[in-house]
Design goal:
The chain is α/β, with parallel strands linked by helices and about 600 residues long. The chain is about 35% helix and about 15% strand.
């Protein structure tokens, strides 16, 4: 802080002294003589008058301190130095920047360090899935909850038609989603047409692969040609894109069948959208968590075969935990985001939410890869073997984290399962740094992405207007310091180096899923994560993504309600295959993956 204060004091004195002396009342200096270079602080005066008292109040927001003389100097030339930098927004030469224009600076997860832990795994793409599937069940509900690995075998062998499977899911949506509110738009006509096409192609011997004929849903921030894409937000209810997003186009090419656009908390925050709150199938008195609330709830309730969610700071991990499904957040850049709503250019990721680990990898295999519309996307080999052994792998853990909240016995039992499967548990550590400061980048990018919404009043149309909802948070973010943004970006590089150090020691990390530090760290470094159910926990109070409000307490229960609980695995960059192998071992050991929410 003292170094920053010294800079604020000395830089204007050194750089601007001549022009400051030439000013009176904040007016621009007279024209410079021929041959004089341009200088800082010589703009035409713009913006409202400010005083030393203005700066005294602003110091409270920035948590810096100026002397009375420094405040007076800053106020004296503000209108001809810094105010003009806001011309893009305030005019006279206003410039509106289109939503699809990304910043010039790209985050490359592999760039901060050189070493095995920060290089993409060598070799070529190789995918080896399981092949066995039981006989087709008689009951539609049993078919609906079957994993994609089974559904695909039944469809490939024509024991089950894509049209029948699509009808099963559409009927379940109509019957069950009224209490969940996980679906924003049902795409029935589109789905039936796609299912019939899949059946004709398979009958003709044109089998596209394991997603051919499988019904799915996507979080409603992915563009779908001719079908509304609402972002869960009131001003977007009638937004109908002309083109499919890259992920939807790839799922179409794989022969998958979209049956629904699924809910998200408005503009990808939590679980409240313009249609209400999306609820948890396991405990309908609480929200499904978010922001991939619809993908989590619909997948858990057997309304779709699989779904696509997105994550910026926990939006796949949290609903996967709450709803008891498997959430795979790929390495940043692994899946192209072209045609997806932007919240944060350097953080947004798209990934599968499924009812099993192998299903998640099947979906990732279909959607990964670069696209010209996403400058951060890359092509990297994806290797996975459902039969790969895990014995001998090293699994890192943070001893303190495993023995304090939010970790519970289920987390500790999962680590014991890994050891029982032949993995070596290795304690690891991170420096005690202010990781929350990284979120300066999140808030600044999000405020930039939705600047127009703040300025033209669209934020006021959103249902959620509490203090911890986007309207207030992103208006507040306008007052974050640009200097602190750059320092947070530098901290991000340091944190990436620390993660590289850890992954030079272990193959994967096992962490409590909702440990705040690792949610923040791994999203900013771009490492892949896999969240999966490994047990059950009893709760006596409904949980919420929102800050506690004494005026609106959460429901309580006289007896414990049993709900899913799981852990999260973090892997090396672009090494989702190893993460999935460990996840499969835990999934088999835990034996809870096929449990269903009562009433669904």
């Amino acid at each position: 802080m003292s170094m920053r204060r010294d800079f604020l004091i000395k830089a204007p004195l050194g750089l601007l002294a001549a022009t400051t002396l030439a000013r009176a009342g904040g007016q621009a200096a007279p024209p410079a003589p021929a041959g004089a270079p341009p200088t800082f602080g010589a703009s035409a005066a713009s913006g409202p008058e400010v005083t030393a008292a203005t700066f005294a109040e602003a110091e409270k927001l920035m948590q810096v301190a100026l002397s009375p003389a420094q405040r007076a100097q800053a106020a004296g030339n503000w209108r001809v130095s810094m105010a003009a930098l806001q011309e893009r927004r305030t005019g006279p030469r206003k410039l509106a920047i289109a939503d699809d224009v990304a910043p010039a600076t790209l985050w490359r997860p592999l760039a901060p360090a050189v070493g095995a832990a920060h290089r993409a795994p060598p070799g070529r793409a190789r995918f080896v899935g399981s092949t066995a599937a039981p006989a087709l069940p008689a009951a539609d509900d049993d078919i609906a909850f079957a994993p994609v690995t089974h559904l695909s075998r039944w469809i490939a062998t024509r024991a089950l038609s894509a049209e029948r499977l699509t009808g099963i899911y559409l009927a379940r949506i109509a019957r069950l989603d009224g209490t969940l509110r996980s679906v924003i738009t049902v795409t029935a006509a589109h789905a039936i047409e796609r299912a019939r096409l899949a059946d004709r192609e398979i009958a003709a011997g044109k089998y596209r692969g394991p997603l051919h004929g499988i019904p799915y849903g996507v979080k409603d921030l992915l563009d779908t040609a001719g079908i509304a894409t609402t972002w869960g937000a009131e001003p977007m209810r009638n937004n109908v894109p002309a083109r499919d997003s890259a992920v939807v186009a790839r799922l179409n090419a794989a022969g998958a069948v979209m049956v629904a656009k699924l809910s998200l908390g408005a503009l990808a925050l939590n679980d409240i959208w313009f249609g209400g709150q999306t609820m948890n199938p396991w405990l309908p008195q609480e929200g499904a968590s978010g922001s991939s609330a619809g993908p989590g709830a619909a997948t858990a309730a057997g309304l779709v075969g699989f779904s696509i969610g997105s994550e910026t700071g926990g939006s796949i991990v949290s609903p996967a935990m709450r709803c008891g499904v498997t959430g795979l957040r790929p390495t940043f850049g692994r899946v192209a985001r072209s045609g997806a709503m932007t919240l944060c250019w350097s953080l947004d990721k798209l990934g599968p939410m499924t009812r099993g680990v192998e299903d998640a990898m099947l979906v990732l295999a279909a959607i990964h890869g670069a696209d010209p519309g996403d400058l951060a996307s890359v092509d990297a080999p994806l290797a996975f073997n459902a039969n790969a052994p895990v014995r001998g792998l090293t699994i890192g853990y943070f001893p303190d984290w495993m023995n304090e909240a939010p970790a519970i016995d289920v987390d500790r039992a999962a680590l014991a399962m890994a050891v029982a499967a032949g993995m070596k548990a290795v304690p690891v550590s991170l420096p005690d740094w202010p990781y929350q400061s990284l979120n300066t980048v999140l808030f600044a990018e999000a405020a930039a992405a939705f600047e127009g919404w703040a300025l033209d009043g669209r934020f006021d149309q959103l249902t959620a207007q509490v203090a911890d909802a986007w309207p207030n948070l992103l208006r507040q973010a306008r007052f974050l310091s640009a200097v602190d943004f750059v320092q947070a970006d530098r901290l991000r590089r340091l944190v990436a180096l620390e993660m590289a150090r850890i992954f030079s020691q272990v193959d994967v990390l096992l962490v409590p899923s909702l440990r705040d530090e690792m949610l923040t760290i791994s999203n900013f470094t771009g490492h892949p994560s896999l969240t999966l159910r490994t047990g059950t926990v009893g709760v006596r109070q409904a949980r919420s993504d929102w800050a506690s409000d004494p005026a609106r307490p959460m429901p309580t229960f006289a007896s414990e309600r049993q709900v899913p609980h799981g852990v999260t695995l973090i892997g090396r960059l672009f090494d989702e295959g190893t993460v999935a192998s460990v996840g499969l071992a835990l999934e088999r050991a835990a034996g809870v993956v096929r449990l269903r929410p009562p009433g669904f």
